[in-house]
Amino acid sequence: MKPRFSSYPIGELLIRLLVDSGLSLPDFMHAIGYGNSAKGIATLDHWLQTGSGNPLFLERLASSPLAPEPAALRSAIAATTAILRDERRTEKQRRIEEEKRAFYPFVQGIAELSRPTSITMFAVTGGPSRYTVRLPQDILSWPDDAREELLRDTISRNYADNGGRTLFMGKITGYLFFREFGARPISYTVDGIARGELDARPAGEATLTINGRTIPHGIFALGSLRP
Fold first, then answer.
1. CA distance 177 to 166
2. pTM of the prediction?
3. Of 42, 108, 170, 226, which has the fewest Cβ atoms less than 10 A away?
């Protein structure tokens, strides 16, 4: 039997029970109610590696002759839950910091429809990348007049290039200027005139897979733009 390790209290408890039982891994699985020992072993390994898994495994263990003390099982579950909560919090903060470092100012068109008339074709044709334009990283340090002139020119040019329409989401009804990470964007008319801030988010990038080929341009969050 290969050595098994776990960074989680519930995993450490399971390993201790296995070792103390003196049974082989397949026999251990049979003892806690698994007719298919391979399935039980796979479930055990998932608990050991991730600190979570199918609760039926723990239910079977708790009702078997190899059951740990109920208080020990509750304690291991509670300690593992706390660790997983901290891991999720840390990972969320890491993603936020990564997105913040990668952020650049941009304008993005506001589509008439909240959902594409064809999600597949919308993804294949690039989603809102056609009406999303990256701006200079230092644009907020520009004089107001110069910044607004660039925004008007950028918006007017993009609107004209697209004929005032998206693909599969209707007309372009305006634009949003995302100037800082986490800040509310500023809404603009299709003529590049500022209308004030909006509570809105940029469309997020997704992927579409067709016949095993991944197409990285699908954007499915335009419905999150809300006035």
1. 18
2. 0.66
3. 226
